[in-house]
Amino acid sequence: KMDRARGNVVVSRRAILEESRAEQRAEIVGDMKEGDTREGVVKNITDYGAFVDLGGIDGLLHVTDMSWKRVNHPSQVVNVGDTVKVQIIKINPDTQRISL
Predict the structure, then answer these.
(1) In which band, very low, low, confident or very high, does the pLDDT at 95 lie, cut at 50, 70 and 90?
(2) 3-class DSSP state of 23
């Protein structure tokens, strides 16, 4: 915003950071293809799966895709901080969500 009467210019740092992150995410998603195998770090575990950081963008590794056997909770297979090798199953370019 510009305040001409006072001679001030107000800039939102948050808006600039969000725009920068959005560009970065779009670039990362653009480099990925369905079927690619990547290494990532488990960032969070929920009842329905684990979120894996793929270097700037998170992907969801669903509990049903973790093992051939039945898994009641993702913490039986992975822990936060584990490095895992995952395959990209689906990329939604509109929402930039990645299924692993």
Answers:
(1) confident
(2) helix
Cβ atoms of 56 and 65 within 8 Å: the answer is no
Helices (H), 1-100: 13-31
Residue 2 confidence (pLDDT) = 67
CA–CA dist 38, 47 (Å, integer):
23
| Strands, E assignment, the chain | 2-3, 8-9, 37-46, 49-53, 58-62, 83-87, 90-92, 97-99
Buried residues in 25-42 as b, exposed as e (16+ CB within 10 A): eeeebeebeeeeebebeb
Q: pTM of this prediction?
A: 0.72
- How many whole angstroms separate alpha carbon 96 and alpha carbon 60? 12
| Three-state DSSP class for residue 29 | helix
| pLDDT one-digit tens code per residue, 40-69 | 999 989 998 999 998 878 888 999 888 888
As separate numbers, helices (DSSP H) first and strands (DSSP E) second, the chain gives 1, 8
